[in-house]
Design a protein that fits this description.
By secondary structure, the chain is α+β, with helices and mostly antiparallel strands. The chain is built from 8 helices and 12 strands.
C-alpha cells in the first residue's frame, strides 16, 4: 500500500521542473489540477499491482522503481531523477502500476489525477504530445534495462554498463567523471541481478585496476575507456 506523504502539502511552485517546455497556458492549467507533496526517504508513492490513480512528476530528489518476484527477490528497474514522470503508461492504459515507486531520498513530487490527465489529453494536443514523449522515454529506458540485464554476459559487464550509463544520464557538469551514488551495494546488486557480495568484489576490483575511485558517496570514474572495454553487447 502506498505510504501517505507528509502533510501539509507544498504550495504549487512557480516553475515545475517536470513540466518541461510546455507552454505557460498549459502549465497554469496543470497547476490548478496538480498537487505537490514532500515524501521522506522510504515513502512509497505507489505499489506494484495497485490500480492507477494518476502520474507522478519528480520535482526534486530520487525515486526508486522496483519489481518483486514471486520468490521475494527484488529487482530495481531504475532510479528516477528530477524531471522524470512515473506511472504514465499505467495511467493512460488504465492498467495496474507495474512497479513500486519509493523515495530513495527526500523528494518533492507533483501528482496529477488520471481523470485530469485524460481530459487534458483530449482537449490539448500539445499536452497529448508531451505525454507521448514521456511514454517514449519510458520505452527507451526499458530497452536499456533489458540490454543491461539480458545482453551482458557477466556481472562485471553489467556493472560496467550501469556505471557508464549513469555517467551518460547526468546533466552537463564541470566534473564529468564524478557522480553521487545514493545506492548501497545491495541495491546496485538488485539493479543488475546479482548479490551484494559480488558487487562489493567487483567494485574492489575496479578500484584496484584504477578504473574508479571512491570518495565517500561520490564515485570517480578515472578510466572510462577501461570500463567501456568490458562492455561487449
Amino acid at each position: 500500500m502506498a505510504t501517505q506523504p507528509m502533510r501539509p502539502p507544498l504550495k504549487p511552485v512557480a516553475a515545475h521542473s517536470a513540466f518541461g517546455d510546455l507552454s505557460p497556458a498549459i502549465v497554469r492549467e496543470l497547476e490548478t489540477v496538480s498537487l505537490t507533496n514532500h515524501y521522506p526517504t522510504g515513502a512509497v508513492l505507489f505499489s506494484e499491482g495497485q490500480a492507477p490513480r494518476g502520474i507522478y512528476l519528480v520535482e526534486s530528489g530520487l525515486v526508486k522503481l522496483s519489481v518483486c518476484a514471486s520468490d521475494g527477490r527484488t529487482l530495481i528497474l531504475r532510479i528516477a531523477q528530477t524531471g522524470e514522470a512515473l506511472g504514465v503508461a499505467s495511467t493512460i492504459g488504465a492498467r495496474d502500476y507495474e512497479a513500486t515507486a519509493e523515495a530513495q531520498q527526500p523528494c518533492d513530487v507533483t501528482f496529477i489525477r488520471q481523470s485530469d490527465v485524460l481530459r487534458m489529453m483530449r482537449v490539448h494536443g500539445e499536452f497529448a504530445l508531451w505525454i507521448t514523449q514521456l511514454l517514449s522515454r519510458d520505452y527507451n529506458s526499458t530497452c536499456r534495462e533489458i540490454r543491461t540485464l539480458m545482453l551482458s554476459g557477466s556481472a562485471s559487464e553489467k556493472l560496467a554498463r550501469l556505471l557508464v550509463g549513469w555517467l551518460d544520464d547526468r546533466p552537463a557538469s564541470s566534473h564529468p567523471t564524478r557522480m553521487k551514488v545514493p545506492l548501497t551495494h545491495e541495491e546496485i546488486g538488485q539493479m543488475i541481478g546479482t548479490s551484494r557480495e559480488t558487487v562489493t568484489r567487483l567494485m574492489a576490483g575496479f578500484r584496484k585496476q584504477r578504473m574508479i575511485a571512491q570518495e565517500g558517496a561520490t564515485l570517480v570514474v578515472s578510466n572510462r575507456l577501461a570500463l567501456e572495454s568490458l562492455i561487449t553487447a
